[in-house]
Amino acid sequence: MWATAVGVAKVRALETEREDALFRDPLAQAFATAGGLWPSSPPPDDEAARRRRPAVSFSIVIRTKFLDDLLRQASASGVRQVVLLGAGMDSRAFRLDWPEGTRLFEVDTAAPLDFKASVLRQERAVARCERIAVAADLREDWPAALVAAGHDPAAPTAWIAEGLLIYLPEDAVELLLARISTQSAAGSRMGLTLGPRGVIERFGRDAASGSAASLWVSEMPDDPVGWLAGHGWEADSHTLRDRAAAYGRPIATPPQREERPGGLISAIRR
Predict the structure, then answer these.
(1) Helix 3-16 to helix 47-76 angle, to the nearest 10 degrees?
(2) Global pTM?
(3) Parallel/antiparallel/unpaired status of strands 264-269 and 189-193
(4) Residue 84 DSSP SS3
(5) What is the pLDDT of residues 64-122, one digit of tens each?
(6) What DSSP letter does each residue of 38-64 carry, written as one string?
């Protein structure tokens, strides 16, 4: 599944080329090229992929900007630990300006971390903070691996789970959130992306076997703010539409149905 992260890098590379880019990711094209996905297009007979790709690409751009802003706010509040869960080809350690003393942990399995390390060596990339790769499977005891790598649960942490929870069944999502909460001191921040209600029916049901969308299994709860409150987090929920408008990229088409609470979540541990 980690090849999906290389596809995300391609989207970020295309955004970086825009004059009005919402962010710049100088490493994204290197990840996409090394992964053999640049350039690429859906097979000519894959109508579902052609319909899905623009919407998914747009959501990746908006969520990237949303989580960048969340991390800047966390840093401004004094948080100096960052954990990227299922980090993939995320390059925030290299492209964001971090306060002195920031430690950024990238948690993922060994294969994507090894691939990423080879590209970073090739690009001679230099992180702007202390970057620590943690090879761990999120289905196993990753908190122990994180602590062994130097994470301090007694200090506030900014957690990011981007494009991750949609691939996990509900019980695994609950376990992941419980583990995050146990490792989070008061003042910790969290940024989540959740699959909007109906997205699997709209885009996943007819996805080709083995494609990213065919692996989607989890949508957000009806009340994500209440759900997170039950885990000790004070959360705000945003729709893709409202964030896109705030960033100067309004969605031109009207909503197809009454929009429920959105899948872009920011939260603070009280």
Answers:
(1) 80
(2) 0.91
(3) antiparallel
(4) strand
(5) 999 999 999 999 999 999 999 999 999 999 999 999 999 999 999 999 999 999 999 99
(6) SS----TT-HHHHHHHHHHHHHHHHHH
